[in-house]
Design goal:
single chain; about 110 residues; HIT family, subunit A; 2 helices; binds guanosine-5'-monophosphate; binds zinc ion
Length: about 110
């Protein structure tokens, strides 16, 4: 999608600190980190919200979570603990309408998240 900031990162039209990419997904550092580790994992396919995920995306979503796990392992936060967040629609705080998993870690997380 031409006006989507994450599609522009995928197309390398705007820069990002990309740490992983394959045929289906991309991971890059969040520009405004909320924890020592704050990485985003996104599908190359433009899906606006979690509610737009279709049956045909099942493998893609499974892969997205596996890549998030790999990044948590690679960054050394897997055993300590980390959080995966996916916001959906305005009251959740979603600001970019291209689905993404936030991988947050490297500090003690709190609950409820606020
Ligand atoms: P949301 O609020 O939609 O769940 O998360 C969007 C995230 O994308 C935010 O944490 C925000 O800091 C990050 N973000 C927004 N624009 C950019 C950008 O241009 N580059 C990078 N690396 N992260 C971005
Ligand atoms: Zn997009």
């Amino acid at each position: 999608m031409s006006d989507c900031i994450f599609c522009k990162i995928i197309d390398k039209k705007i820069p990002a600190r990309i740490i992983y990419e394959d045929e289906h997904v991309l991971a890059f550092e969040d520009v405004n980190p909320q924890a020592p580790v704050h990485t985003l994992v996104i599908p190359r396919k433009h899906i606006p919200t979690l509610l737009d995920i279709k049956e045909e995306d099942n493998n893609l979503i499974g892969h997205l979570v596996k890549v998030a796990n790999k990044i948590a392992n690679d960054k050394g936060i897997a055993k300590r603990g980390f959080r995966i967040v996916a916001n959906c629609n305005p009251e959740s705080g979603q600001t970019v309408y291209h689905i993404h998993l936030h991988i947050l870690g490297g500090r003690q997380m709190h609950w409820p998240p606020g």
